Amino acid sequence: MGTTDSHAADAADLKRTPLYDLHVELGARMVPFAGYDMPVQYPTGIMTEHQHTRAAAGLFDVSHMGQAWLIGPDHETTARALEALVPSNMVELGRGKQRYTVLLNADGGIVDDLMVTRPVAAADDGRLFLVVNASRKDVDYPLIRAALPANVRLELIEDRALIAVQGPEAVAAVAAHAPKAAELAFMTADWMDFDGIRCHVSRSGYTGEDGVEMSVPADKAEAITRALLADERVKPIGLGARDSLRLEAGLCLYGHDLDETTSPVEGDITFILQKRRREEGGFPGAARIRQELADGPARKRVGLRLDGRAPAREGAEIKVPGGDTVGIVTSGGFGPTAGVPVAMGYVAAAHAAPGTKLALVVRGKELEATVVEMPIVPHRYVRAARA
């Protein structure tokens, strides 16, 4: 996530989120990311930001993500239109429920991963709220539109920002301004007022911690963020700590751990395939995916824990110690909570079992590593709302 020498020259071409001026005011180091000028860290540094999120609450600007509505005449029509592109059961998604899924290509490769939410209100029946990756908006939207029946449309949301608040104190900090936030269970969402400002809030996130993501009016984003940062429990967090947090949590970053060659089975995210979809198919690449489910994939995403202190970065070869190359690292770095370097990567299925000893090649040297269960740091999601 390092900056580039040409950042100053390129900055004029980068988009800015509604919180850009506040990031600069707070002393953030800004870097290009997915076409946006984004904060990679604040003056306290990535390690402190990571640890604060695990201990209290971190605030992340994720306004670069794409937000959109999929709109049809009724829920089943809209859900089935989306099911033609994703392998998850959208028809049976309950009101106010959120689901993680992936867009697939004809070969069963992952075009993007995204979040889908069905609104609570009966008046919103037939609408699904989508949040997609910033780097894939220009790919996702034409793909979705081209597959939709005439009575379902995609409507982009251009006037809202997205703020994530993550950590054990996150929901309490948000609930001080939006009491309904405390009533949400994990992977549920609803509209609510934050200091009188209408926001869409889901209990979800990308750190392995409890927390929320808030879709807010773009012109109110700075006021909402300042209100949250006035709480001593909440600190601003940049892309650097966001990356180390999600890596420890075993969560994929699109374009690194998932791409158009990777299937959900290889990516070890088969939880997105509910029983009906596994049995019926009817999604792009279903033949490949169902075969991999039955026979096992040739390669698989695994977690890795390094024995020394030197981290292995994306692109490092994974080898049998002293032997053949069996895979490649897709994400890696130091895990502040784990206390050791950690990584994720793809290895041949024969070497994917937890406990397998492997070697990661860094600067020509083989570093000892062990395949470990993911998440590397346990998730602390709150499955039901606190009383």
Automatic annotation (TrEMBL):
<dbReference type="InterPro" id="IPR028896">
    <property type="entry name" value="GcvT/YgfZ/DmdA"/>
</dbReference>
<keyword id="KW-0808">Transferase</keyword>
<dbReference type="GO" id="GO:0004047">
    <property type="term" value="F:aminomethyltransferase activity"/>
</dbReference>
<dbReference type="InterPro" id="IPR027266">
    <property type="entry name" value="TrmE/GcvT-like"/>
</dbReference>
<dbReference type="InterPro" id="IPR006222">
    <property type="entry name" value="GCVT_N"/>
</dbReference>
<comment type="similarity">
    <text>Belongs to the GcvT family.</text>
</comment>
<dbReference type="InterPro" id="IPR029043">
    <property type="entry name" value="GcvT/YgfZ_C"/>
</dbReference>
<dbReference type="InterPro" id="IPR013977">
    <property type="entry name" value="GcvT_C"/>
</dbReference>
<dbReference type="InterPro" id="IPR006223">
    <property type="entry name" value="GcvT"/>
</dbReference>
<dbReference type="Pfam" id="PF01571">
    <property type="entry name" value="GCV_T"/>
</dbReference>
<protein>
    <recommendedName>
        <fullName>aminomethyltransferase</fullName>
        <ecNumber>2.1.2.10</ecNumber>
    </recommendedName>
</protein>
<dbReference type="Pfam" id="PF08669">
    <property type="entry name" value="GCV_T_C"/>
</dbReference>
<keyword id="KW-0032">Aminotransferase</keyword>
<feature type="domain" description="Aminomethyltransferase C-terminal">
    <location>
        <begin position="299"/>
        <end position="376"/>
    </location>
</feature>
<feature type="domain" description="GCVT N-terminal">
    <location>
        <begin position="19"/>
        <end position="275"/>
    </location>
</feature>
